[in-house]
Amino acid sequence: MRKSIFAAFFxxxxxxxxxxxxxxxxxxxxxxxxxxxxxxxxxxxxGKLAAFCAGAVLGILMETMVSALPLIHVIMYPVLxxxxxxxxADWSIKQRxxxxxxxxxxxxxxxxxxxxxxxxLSFLAEVxxxxxxxxxGAGLTIGHLLKALLAVLYTCVATLAFYLPxxxxxxxxxxxxxxxKTKLNV
Length: 186
Hints:
Layout: H1 2-21, H2 34-45, H3 48-65, H4 72-88, H5 93-102, H6 110-135, H7 142-170, E1 174-176, E2 183-185
Antiparallel strand pairs: 1-2
Helix pairs in contact: 1-3, 2-3, 2-4, 2-6, 2-7, 3-4, 4-6, 6-7
């Protein structure tokens, strides 16, 4: 129950940050996408289902607030969450135990997976937006592509800033059994 309350709090906080604060954090007329950053964190920390739920809620909230592009947010954020979950989400407990027994050694650390997930999801979101820009009849220039690349980098930095507080809050009462590599809720 507590994990769900923290998850809902961080989803709504990300939405409020994106709508109210991020427009004032522009660098070179580019702002980070906090929603993609939070979805990337949920992919790694919470798994596919938590990321999809966060993406769906964020998509609906953004669609109600910023409806200049019809239905793009409702479709884009859940799809991004699913794509990120396919590549970067943790496996189930049984799959993780089997994988651990089969391959002992260093695994990709969660922080690196989160940054890579944020980069991929932000890149895909920028591709969708640039594609929509081209379809609307605007001319595509190198400035548009550079701003999209800068937005991807800025989103990765924002993900890095919010990774630890969200991870600590969501994994507060989860302990890993050293022998079986399973999660124990305390």
